[in-house]
Specification:
heterodimer; B: alpha/beta; Rossmann fold; 2 domains; 14 strands; globular
Chain lengths: ~260, ~300
């Protein structure tokens, strides 16, 4: 008998998303703290400490203050971290230690819905983090509205992108310690070299080209134009890149997780 | 605690034909066929690694079969898997309760997976917690529960969707005798209400007590099938005389009488229809020390058929 894959994804993935929301709501006070406090620490360190040294940075032919330059980076990095850590460490714990996926598989849910629900939740966490962080950053007048509201759909896009790649790593790593490798070779370099803390133009040309491969570069570029209210046609390239990234890594996560779990 | 009467149908609830599961070069399940009738408790017995868990996993779609046919509720898998899963309750071997949620929420969240409404889930969860003696634990964390309570909660969770078929994979492994008996009692009550149960176990006492029919499998193949009592009568007889101590002297006597026995070195196990007569004879000729007479049980059948070497 050939076992045909019953891998159609139905709306049931929302059940998995709801499960994660139920858990999140039980500890929401603790969960709300990092996105509220983290930007304060960064703004203090960079705004008060570093800003005095840096002064202003060039952005699309203009000089902008360093704080205006890095505020969107903090938002983009926060989207990446929220989504990536959710589908890497957290999903791995649910899959491997808690056997949560095994239990779900004995219900009408199929594996594709479980993984989709996890990635949807990762994107939701990116969105929640973005909303909370925006509240703080906006108080400092670092976000232009109404363009700043575009950060909300952007958080979902970035969340799906980094949630998917996190899930791909989860489908590969033999144990939880191995996540150190993708974090060291993928996440940390992105955090530093994606036009986050200094303009890409400061990099040697070859490194600037390399940076274009990194998804965070595109997320930062989009976030920056949202906070600065500077929407231009060049952003279509960034958005297209992230959409293509999702179109590759989301299905890949589904295929790889099936290969890992269904034997 | 109500069990919904399943829709009437003459088809067996579970039909398995020539089921095969291979993992690379290793064949875990090698052509198994059986069926489970409505309202019965059917046992899948075998030593560790016999293929019990692999078989039930194929039933709920966790492992796609390498060959053979699977029917649940008269419909073929995998096409009807989703519809079938709404009607199955599964109690997996490992405790995979959700440690991020308290006891009651574990049931409610599971109810959601089956598309139960919130009020329906709440009502059902309340009934189940009472049935399994967990009503005072609804808000406890799962991690602080005892092994017995966890198992009962897994059982309660597997019943949240009013299943027409309950699949239990080694439901009492690792439990103390008190908890085990409590679980058995609950399962008997469910059975009495007409629930169809498919059970895997390597506890013969459990199978004898709960199963109407069973198969014993080893190396992925069926060794025997039948009702527990019939299997005992057929394969070991009525009684067992165990001989410890004077085994060396008694062995020739048993051979002379042509009685089937097993030789475990210092210990002989004799299967016989009339144990009392044999016991009296042996006690007279060799002394009564180390002689025991007992009823034959499923464990004797199991050990005779699957051998006594350790399974790792």
């Amino acid at each position: 008998m050939r076992h045909r894959r019953s891998c159609r994804i139905s709306r049931r993935f929302i059940r998995v998303w709801q499960r994660n929301l139920t858990v999140y709501r039980r500890t929401w006070k603790v969960n709300f703290l990092p996105p509220l406090l983290e930007p304060l620490l960064y703004l203090l360190a960079f705004g008060v400490g570093l800003s005095a040294l840096v002064g202003s940075v060039p952005y699309r032919g203009e000089a902008v203050s360093y704080l205006v330059f890095i505020a969107p980076s903090l938002l983009a990095v926060n989207m990446m971290y929220n989504a990536f850590f959710e589908t890497s460490y957290s999903s791995f714990v649910r899959m491997y230690y808690q056997k949560t996926f095994d239990a779900m598989l004995a219900t009408p849910l199929n594996l594709e819905e479980i993984i989709t629900g996890e990635i949807a939740w990762a994107a939701t966490k990116a969105l929640i983090g973005t909303v909370l962080m925006l509240l703080v950053i906006s108080l400092f007048g670092l976000v232009r509205y109404p363009e700043g509201l575009l950060l909300l759909p952007l958080a979902l896009l970035g969340g799906v992108a980094f949630g998917s790649i996190g899930m791909v790593f989860t489908s590969i790593v033999p144990n939880i310690e191995t996540f150190n490798i993708p974090i060291f070779v993928f996440i940390t370099p992105m955090f530093l070299f994606s036009g986050t803390f200094f303009p890409l133009e400061n990099l040697p040309p070859w490194a600037g080209v390399l940076a274009q491969v990194l998804p965070l570069t595109h997320l930062v570029a989009l976030a920056r134009s949202c906070t600065m209210g500077d929407l231009h046609a060049g952003l279509l390239w960034n958005a297209a890149y992230l959409l293509a990234f999702c179109a590759i890594f989301f299905p890949l996560a589904l295929v790889r997780m099936r290969r890992r779990l269904i034997k | 605690m109500d069990i919904r009467p399943p829709p009437r149908s003459d088809r067996p609830v579970v039909e398995v034909r020539d089921l095969v599961k291979r993992f690379g070069a290793f064949t875990a399940v090698d052509g198994i066929s059986f069926s489970v009738r409505r309202g019965e408790c059917f046992g899948l017995l075998g030593p560790n690694g016999a293929g019990k868990t692999t078989t039930v996993r194929m039933l709920y779609g966790y492992a796609p079969p390498s060959g053979g046919c699977l029917n649940l509720f008269g419909e073929a898998l995998p096409e009807s898997l989703r519809a079938a899963k709404y009607r199955i309750g599964v109690c997996q071997q490992e405790d995979n309760l959700d440690p991020d949620l308290p006891v009651g929420e574990n049931l409610l969240v599971f109810g959601r997976y089956f598309d139960l409404s919130r009020s329906e889930s709440r009502k059902r969860a309340g009934e189940l917690l009472r049935f399994f003696g967990l009503e005072n634990r609804a808000s406890s964390g799962v991690r602080i529960l005892s092994g017995g309570m966890m198992r009962r909660l897994v059982l309660a969770r597997s019943l949240i969707n009013h299943p027409d078929l309950l699949i239990l994979d080694e439901p009492t492994t690792g439990l103390d005798p008190q908890s085990r008996h409590q679980v058995w009692q609950r399962l008997e009550e469910l059975k009495a209400k007409g629930l169809t149960i498919l059970l895997t176990s390597h506890y013969m006492e459990e199978a004898e007590r709960l199963c109407d029919r069973l198969i014993i499998i080893d190396d992925g193949r069926i060794l025997v099938e039948g009702a527990p009592r019939d299997l005992v009568r057929e394969h070991v007889g009525r009684e067992v005389v165990e001989i410890a101590g004077a085994a060396a002297q008694i062995r020739p006597e048993l051979e002379r009488r042509g009685l089937p026995f097993e030789d475990l070195g210092g210990r002989l196990i004799v299967y016989t229809e009339n144990g009392e007569e044999l016991l009296v004879h042996l006690a007279r000729d060799f002394g009564p020390q180390g002689l025991t007479l007992r009823r034959a049980g499923l464990e004797d059948v199991f050990l005779r058929l699957t051998g006594r070497e350790l399974r790792e």
